[in-house]
Queue: 2 jobs
Job 1
Amino acid sequence: MPVIRHLSPHEILTARLRSAGCVFAEDEARLLIDAAPTPEALERMAGRRVAGLPLEHILGWAEFCGLRIAVDTGVFVPRRRTEFLVRQAAALLDASRVARGDSPAPVVVDLCCGSGAVGAALAALAGPAELHCADIDPAAVSCARTNVVPLGGQVHEGDLYAPLPAGLRGRVRLLAVNAPYVPSADIETMPQEARVHEPRACLDGGADGLQVQRRVAAGARQWLAPGGHVLIETSRRQSAQTAGILRRHGLAARVLRSEELGATVVAGALPPFGGR
């Protein structure tokens, strides 16, 4: 007589998520089961995921650089590729400490911070710093405060540099920027999770995707300390243009690439004496 094996709850949920198009269905099923306090809660959470809500919005957190970053519904979900930006930023801060001693702690700014993932990761992983984060979206700012304030950072609400304390001008050692860089016409080709459940303003970089980057570059020299750096996440195909934008504003620029993470970052440097 054949033995009938009943599927486990994990196997059942995995199959359901896979049918809905979830690429990492097995891992997602495990996370949802671990997070759900009751079977009824699990059913609600699974239903939201099948409907297309980002897993991170359902769980309330995203894994980033080994940390659990709080992510509220409607806030941009930090991507794993952005961990490359953090690694490069941490390496520059380490080099600065060796070369300069950096006492007091270096000023670090996470611009277009979203949930504050980049700033929080740098605060946790890259040593003492005076950390400031800024974003124009009130929901993102609220979320970033949850992640950054316990680590000693400050979060400011406003457009790019506008909300930063004036006393930071000319003092920023590291400016980390994950500004929107998707061309407007490409938004509709993005996965539903992003184009439906994340604010368009955190995705849309204008006609060529570089509109916000141009504004960042135009103001960078006013805020960077002599020898300071700006790191901007971009795409491989836009990287030469991003580098050109930084150079036109007096910054030495180089393109950095991680094949492992599929990530591209353009690093701009202000000369040690400011180039003024």
Note: The longest strand covers residues 224-234.
Job 2
Amino acid sequence: MKSTHQSKGGDLSAYSVFLAVANQRSFRAAAAELDLTPSAISHSIKSLEQRLGIRLFNRTTRSMALTDAGERLLARLRPAMGAIEDAVREIEERRGTPSGTVRINASEGAIRLVLKPLLARFLREHPQVRLDLVSDGRLSDIVADGFDAGIRLAEAVAQDMVAVNVLDRVRFAAIAAPAYLAARGRPRVPQDLHGHDCIRFRFESGAIYRWEFERRGILERVNVDGPLTLTDQPLMVDAAIDGIGIAFVPDHLAAEALRDGRLQRVLEDWCPDSPGLCLYYPGHRHVSSGLRALIDALSEQRQHWSAQAAAAR
């Protein structure tokens, strides 16, 4: 006799696999997320499609996409599974010990700047928490992509998100190698960059970042040109060290090379502080015990940095 708790569609684990594949658009990536083998993922999806009597994915050797039926199932499952996850998290929270997996989407710079300094201590103090950090140059939809939270510049966080300030200010720096500046001269104002080789940054959307400068309330935006365009800011620093041209990056990425003289600042009085970094999450979702512990650790770290900055002044 068939259990009353299991319908024709199968058990909840099959739908968890479906959600992971739908989010990742890859059996291999979904397998890594769920700690299963790709063959187990493939078997689960095939079994679910057979039980439902409908194809959920169109698969080729190069790509995977949801069918119309798959899209409809995904739209109904996401909020339902989210509610189940919230219920489980509430139970975990009552145990008093932070636990569970916390998925964070952030730029590589944000991970290096605010998460890297506390990772070892945080994981040592919270052994039942697993952090899944995804470095992403896009401004991802953290809800649609299955993340618990994101970390971005404060100005980029949507107003319907709960934002927690984790770094007060971020400063950008225009940097170049001494040999490049000796050969090409130093730009004095932002418009001088039109006469220089610049190392440009391309967002994953394809758009090229337009450099923004400010001094005494005057804002200058420059569409720079140059021989090299990258999607990775640390590589931009390396390219500047190699003398390829001038780069414009968050200054913490170039701090070591600036200290040892491999790089020099230019247009320093035109490089303003930008609004700081925020950890953000959707307000309608329950904050898990693991995410709450991470927020508390980041807030303590920010307070420590602020106290150090105040003491240095």
Note: DSSP finds ten helices and 13 strands in the chain.
